[in-house]
What we know:
Oligomer: single chain
Radius of gyration: 28 Å
Structural class: mainly alpha
Shape: rod-shaped
Amino acid sequence: MAQGGSTMGEEPTWPELLLIFAAVAAVPVVIGGALVLTLIGLVMWVTAPLRRRRRARSADSGGEVGRA
């Protein structure tokens, strides 16, 4: 019933530690990147009508609005 030795197992080697670190670090990078791309996409989608109106207005006036 009594177990001899360490119950923790052996310590990970440097390559294993680096792999674990890379995997743990990749999670927030992937989630953060997805959030940033989502926010950029939503901003583009919400502002599309405004950009369309601006483009149509500048095309009606010859495209020279605001140029000296």
